[in-house]
Amino acid sequence: MLHHTGTIDDSGDKENQNPGGMGNSLGRRTRSDFEGDNNLTLGPRKRPARTDPLVSHGRHFGRTIHAFCRPFALIKEGISRHLQMETGVFTASDLTENEIREHNIFKNLLKLSTGLDQRVMRASEQELHYIADMIQKGAACARSDDTKGLKSAIIDWITPKDGTLSPPLSRNIKDNRGWFHYRTGQLLCPPTLDWTDADVRKCLRSGEIVVSGDQWPAFLYENEKINLENPWDGLLQGALLVSAFKYIFTSPSSVESQDTRATRAGNADLHGMKAVTTASLAYVSTLVRFSLTSSAVFSRNDKTTDSERFYGSVLGFLELPSETSEVEALLRWWNRQEDIPSPPPRIWCSEDGSASVMDKLMEWRDNNLHPQE
């Protein structure tokens, strides 16, 4: 049985309410209805919902520091490790190689925003969960936006100049990419395999040969070929990587021209990024690799693309102490390529004293109505 308590409220009777919330008299508007508004204007623009700045920092974190880590575990262990080192329980020299790497990621996370380090150190368990969730949300959003953009843009970059792909590739459907198309398969094939061999292509397409994430593709190399006498020669200098890096960190228009047509700051400029990082190279390599595959949805646990293992293998290799000199040379090369420009400041014509066409029309009309004698 339904029970009703309290007074009767007519607000639920829609038939007895004035339509549109108008005044008592249908068709009449009060003076306040006309103040600052009329039927020919759109009215005040709806204010967009505020997003926690941590989400924006999370986007940068995923692109340039680490794409696949679990922020809450990273922060909790980082705080514990920091406090134990502060109290002398152990020193940095007592940490393992993996712990040093994790702690460096933790310290870089704290540098994302002014005061974030103090906030993290004083935060409750609940607030730490919130901070970690915002960082993870930002990283996931950035990855989603970047994969969506690259899926279409990469078709232009792999199409021969003044030529076409045969058969053509769709910008929005990936079913015929990967091993099923000669060009994408050629770029994805490890340079230690011979893609021109029909038997190799057949085995890759049938799944007899499975390429895991630690088998790096040919597109990582400058000429899509490995120099077996010096495998570092041209590594991570491929044209697709350069284009994708500019697309993500500078602007899509900067891919084709040094003079960017962007009217707002790029991701690098927004976050004060002055130099290329090893993590950003691993990130871009991972997304380019995914864009060339036939997989429709990016998933860190997808065993077909094996993206997380690929990312980890590239980043882990670049952080090996034995590769320091080559990595430093590589980053110098990239920083020469990526002289990240800022868009020029905009000057509104109305602010610099320039007259508009409408100003000239009004001036002309005024002169015609009141001709000078």
What is the number of helices? Answer: 14
Report, as a whole number of angstroms, the end-to-end distance. Answer: 90 Å
How many separate domains? 1
Mean pLDDT value:
84
Structural class comes to mainly alpha
Following the backbone from N to C, one meets helices and strands in this order, namely: HHHHHHHHHHHHHH
Give the strand content: under 5%
Task: Identify the overall geometry.
Answer: globular
Rounded radius of gyration (Å): 29 Å
- The percent of residues in helical segments reads 40-55%
Pfam families: DUF6698
Region (Disordered): 1-56
Summarize the structure.
This protein is mainly α. The chain has helices spanning 31-34, 53-64, 71-86, 97-110, 116-122, 125-158, 182-188, 198-206, 239-249, 267-270, 278-292, 307-318, 324-337, 357-369.
Q: What does this molecule look like?
A:
Residues 1-56 are annotated as: Disordered. With 373 residues, this protein is an all-alpha fold. The chain has one domain. The protein has 14 helices and no strands. It has helices at 31-34, 53-64, 71-86, 97-110, 116-122, 125-158, 182-188, 198-206, 239-249, 267-270, 278-292, 307-318, 324-337, 357-369. α3 (71-86) packs across α4, α9 packs across α11 (278-292) and α11 (278-292) packs antiparallel against α12. The longest helix has 34 residues, at 125-158. The protein is globular. Mean pLDDT is 84; it is low at 1-26 and 340-348.
